[in-house]
Structure formats: C-alpha cells, structure tokens
Amino acid sequence: LVLMQLGKTDETVAAYREAIPLLHALNNQRDLGLVSSGLGRLYMRMGNYTQAQSYLEQALTAVQATGAKEAIANALSNLGYFYKTKGLYEQAIAHFQKTLTICQQINHKRGVAVSSGWLGVVHYEQGEFEAARQRYEQSLQLSKEIGNETDIAIFLANLGDVAKSVQQYEQAWDYNQEALDILRAIDHKQHLAEIMLKQVEIRFIEGNFEQAQLLLAEAHQLGESVKDQSVIFNGRLLEARLQYKLGEAETAVAALHAMLSDFPQDKFQAEIRFYLWQMTGEEGEKETAVSLYQTLLDKTPNHQYRQYLATLLEA
What we know:
Blueprint: H1 2-5, H2 9-26, H3 29-46, H4 49-66, H5 69-85, H6 89-105, H7 109-125, H8 129-146, H9 149-165, H10 169-186, H11 189-206, H12 209-226, H13 229-245, H14 249-262, H15 266-280, H16 283-299, H17 303-314
C-alpha cells in the first residue's frame, strides 16, 4: 500500500504477484482477498481490464470464504468500479447497492460514504447531476465526520465535476482547489494528478491558457509516475488542445495521431477523432467519431458521449 501511494506501480504489482502464491499455500483467504483486490485495481489503472476482472473476481471469492462482511463489501465495491469503468451501469449499480446495504447493516460509516459516492458517480456519468450532487454531499458529510482526508478530497472533486457540468466554473475551481490542498498535505499522487487535470480543463474552458499550461506540466509528471492510463490520456489530450489554441496546429494534430496507436480503446479513439475533426475539419474524422460514439452509446448511456455525438451531428 505504501508503494502504491508513492506512485511506484511496477514495484507494487511485483510485490502483490509475489505474495499471491504464498497466500494460496497458507490458505489465507483474508489476505488473499486484499492482495487480489489491490492487484485488480492496479490493472484497472493500467487499462488491463482482462487481468483486472480476473483478480477482482478472485478477491470476491476469497473473502466470501471468510464470511467477513466488510471485506465482502469492499470486494463488491471494487467489482462495481470495474463495471462502472466499462460503462456497464446496471451491473455497477447492483454491486454498489449491495455494498451500501452491507455497510449499513454493519454500521460501517466509511463504506456507506464510499458506496453512496460511487452511486453518485453513476448518476453523474448518466447526466443526472442533481442526484449525483445529493449523493456526493451525503458522502462528504460522512467523510468529514469520520475524518478521512482522502475521501473528503475525492468528494470535493466530485462536487467540482457537477459544478463544471452546469457551467459554475469558479465554484468547480474552488472545490478542486480545496481537494488539492488536502491531497498535497498527505502526498497522494494518484488523485493529485487527476484533480490537477480537472483544473487544467477549467482554465482551458475559460481561455486562461498560460495557467492551464503551468498546471498541465505538473499534472503530466504526476500522471506518468502513477502510470494511470486515463490520467496519461487526459493529460496528453489537453496538451494537444492547448497547442492548437496557441497556434501550434501541426504539432497538435501530430500529437493526436500518435495517440491513436497508444490508446486503442474505443472511448479514447472516439475522443481523439472528435478533436482531430475539430482541428482539421476532415469529414473522414467526423464520420469515424460519429460511428464510434454511436457504438459506445449503444452500450453505455454516458452523458459525455451524448454531448460529443450531438456536437458532431449538429455540425
């Protein structure tokens, strides 16, 4: 856990993988569940979803053998996160709701806060902003009662997402800044990188490109150190968009073309094609982006996919 918090992803994966056969030999189901969950979450960050699902399911099987309700709730929550990330919202909601029920039964306040927060994320991704805000505020209040600094920062940033989505940019900035102050104090690199990129996006929207560039440089460094695929993608995409706005169109387009081979998943490909179309005006890029977003929306009712598709079809 210490290695993971320090952003040493490769060392953490190696340590977890080394521990698993030893725990099997000892029939230590409790620790096997913890280690398998940790490894599954790391593979999620790295974009290796096949390995992630395998280890997260192994973790649930292991902790179910112990009968420990808190551990079972954690394993269910991790699988809920997996399904949420894959855009399988019904499965995600089912797992988060089971987690919430167990945590309420055993009076596990942090579990209630986190599972309620995840349900808020699913609301948010489907464009249900008021429902998301209510969940986040409940989770934030519980986290403050508990005193969990990391969770407080996460839910503040979640509220920032809602504020940004309804164009309350300064309120979003303030929520994120409060979260960043907390995360810097506890040196949590993973969430620092994620939330700094949110601040870059806000300043980009406002047209404050110089401040956006300064923030992006720091976020880039943190994102590379934690090896989170989504953080790295968002950082590189924002960098290309900034280059374009600052008059470096050829550099920006070249950067996006390079990203096509580095990020093969449809959700990344669609966003890259969208911005290639915006930068070049090429009809082929538009057609590809439309096709990808229609395919994505058939599987996942994500409000951002709908927004991108609407922009493409209205042009």
